[in-house]
């Protein structure tokens, strides 16, 4: 199949340009992750690519192959060199478009196209020597080499180089008298500069001021006098400047569409690769997950929350990894344990892993098997919105009802501490009703809750508990382990730590 896209083996029917940020991004802190990934890459507008999950296992494998090819340091360096050349080309073109005088603009466009030709030739040379295994990069290499050898590109290259050479041979003389300037062809006049300098060398005493005027280099250095001189020079060389006019008119759209698309899309991989590298340098692991749209036997070893890890890394704090797995009929992970023990972080990790896997990206962990969902739903606590005139409990019920109406057996549902605004008895009643529906749907679910009874609700549920340091229950390990819920919130230990027990409060009041 001919090359179409480095992101999609077949271009999607719906343009990714119009992709909007999924609703669950904020709940899972994926907005922070993607902001960190795309930082410094604003010119490529990568966000829509990260807002568009794939719904086909083969499409995910297509991206995995490209990521694996880019693990080759030489190839990665070649792609980066190409990106830098194309960036320079765009900068050059942007400056050219800001210029006012005709021939000045045309010369800058000529040099811009020369940069483009150099970028194409350099990348084609590098890719021809690379040991590529991915379908995407192999198809692009074949396309690039074919384009490089095409009459269209060779004509552009030849004409560009010839014009640059011909323009470099243009010489002229200026005769300046009073406020007028005359321009004529250079007629091999003798330059007496060296002779004059040699004659007066014997009178030189120490360092002297250099009164020579140097022309500035750059797009904004031409004034109306210089432009007027250039117009006169053009009249001296009418055929050459006519060629320049025709060249610029003919090549106003010189960049090949597929190469331009590749230049942008490949940054999806580059940006994520560079983001991963910051964690790998700390010894954290990433892997290519085995993704299935059928098997719900999932697992992840040594996974972590990317958003939290990114923040902790900047603060030079340690990052805790966790594992999970589901086997057989197991579908729902119920996470219980003391507050501030990493339960919500674990829930976010679960969601991030599945979403990043659906993008075809490597995921945190040493090994992973993940499910390719149709929809991902989250319900995290939110502040009351006075505009909808709903109380917190009603809002919880409305949101949960909407999720359960839309969810299918292929969906993933992540619930974090729902029904906390009602009594324990009502919370248990409502939670069991929701659990019954999720069990019936056979959806994958991770549920963080204070209700231990849910952990053993059915054979589809699995209990995981956030742990503390045995010798000091006020210290959290942030490890989430698979074991029966124990109902321990360690509230007394926390109260003692912060001197909030009954006795401590009485003592403080007396003081």
How would you describe the overall organization of this protein?
There is one protein chain. The protein has 2 domains: 1-22 and 44-171 and 180-189 and 224-272; 282-510, P-loop containing nucleotide triphosphate hydrolases (Rossmann fold, 3-Layer(aba) Sandwich), CATH 3.40.50. It has 17 helices and 14 strands. The chain has helices at 30-38, 47-50, 57-69, 73-98, 102-129, 135-148, 151-168, 193-199, 224-236, 238-250, 257-280, 306-314, 343-358, 392-406, 424-441, 491-497, 502-510, and strands at residues 172-177, 180-185, 286-287, 290-292, 299-303, 322-325, 332-336, 363-364, 367-371, 376-379, 412-416, 444-448, 461-469, 472-482. A 6-stranded mixed sheet has the order 10-11-12-7-13-14, with helices on both faces. A 4-stranded mixed sheet has the order 4-9-5-6, covered by helices on one side. Helix 15 links the parallel strand 11 and strand 12.
């Amino acid at each position: 199949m001919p090359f179409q896209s480095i992101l999609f083996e077949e271009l999607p029917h719906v343009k990714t340009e119009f992709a909007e940020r999924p609703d669950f991004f904020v709940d899972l802190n994926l907005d922070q992750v993607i902001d960190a990934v795309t930082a410094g890459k604003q010119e490529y507008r990568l966000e829509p690519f990260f807002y568009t999950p794939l719904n086909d296992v083969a499409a995910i494998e297509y991206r995995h192959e490209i990521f694996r090819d880019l693990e080759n340091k030489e190839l990665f360096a070649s792609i980066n060199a190409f990106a830098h050349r194309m960036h320079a080309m765009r900068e050059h073109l942007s400056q050219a478009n800001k210029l006012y005088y005709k021939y000045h603009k045309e010369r800058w466009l000529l040099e811009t196209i020369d940069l483009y030709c150099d970028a194409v030739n350099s990348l084609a040379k590098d890719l021809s020597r690379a040991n590529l295994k991915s379908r995407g990069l192999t198809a692009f290499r074949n396309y690039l080499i074919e384009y490089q050898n095409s009459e269209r590109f060779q004509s552009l290259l030849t004409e560009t180089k010839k014009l640059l050479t011909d323009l470099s041979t243009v010489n002229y003389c200026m005769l300046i008298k009073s406020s007028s300037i005359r321009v004529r062809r250079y007629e091999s006049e003798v330059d007496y500069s060296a002779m004059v300098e040699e004659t007066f060398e014997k009178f030189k005493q120490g360092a002297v001021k250099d009164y020579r005027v140097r022309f500035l280099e750059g797009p904004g250095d031409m004034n109306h006098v210089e432009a007027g001189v250039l117009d006169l020079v053009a009249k001296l060389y009418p055929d050459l400047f006519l060629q320049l006019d025709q060249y610029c008119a003919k090549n106003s759209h010189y960049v090949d569409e597929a190469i331009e698309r590749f230049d942008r899309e490949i940054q999806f991989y580059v940006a994520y690769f560079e983001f991963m590298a910051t964690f790998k340098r700390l010894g954290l692991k990433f892997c290519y997950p085995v993704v299935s749209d059928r098997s719900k036997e999932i697992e992840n070893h040594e996974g972590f929350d990317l958003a939290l890890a990114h923040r902790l890394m900047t603060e030079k704090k340690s990052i805790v990894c966790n594992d999970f797995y589901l086997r057989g009929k197991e579908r729902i992970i119920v996470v219980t344990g003391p507050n501030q023990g990493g339960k919500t972080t674990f829930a976010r990790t679960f969601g991030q892993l599945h979403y990043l896997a659906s993008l075809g990206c490597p995921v945190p962990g040493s090994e992973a098997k993940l499910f390719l969902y149709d929809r991902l739903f989250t319900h995290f606590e939110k502040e009351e919105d006075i505009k909808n005139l709903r109380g917190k409990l009603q809002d919880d019920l409305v949101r949960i009802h909407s999720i359960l109406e839309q969810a299918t057996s292929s969906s993933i549902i992540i619930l974090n501490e729902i029904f906390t605004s009602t009594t324990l008895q009502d919370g248990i009643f409502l939670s069991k009703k929701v659990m019954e529906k999720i069990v019936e749907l056979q959806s994958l679910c991770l549920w963080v809750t204070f209700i231990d009874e849910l952990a053993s609700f059915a054979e589809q549920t699995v209990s995981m508990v956030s742990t503390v340091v045995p010798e000091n229950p006020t210290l959290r390990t942030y490890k989430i382990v698979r074991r029966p819920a124990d109902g321990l919130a360690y509230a007394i230990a926390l109260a003692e730590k912060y001197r909030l027990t009954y006795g401590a409060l009485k003592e403080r009041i007396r003081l």
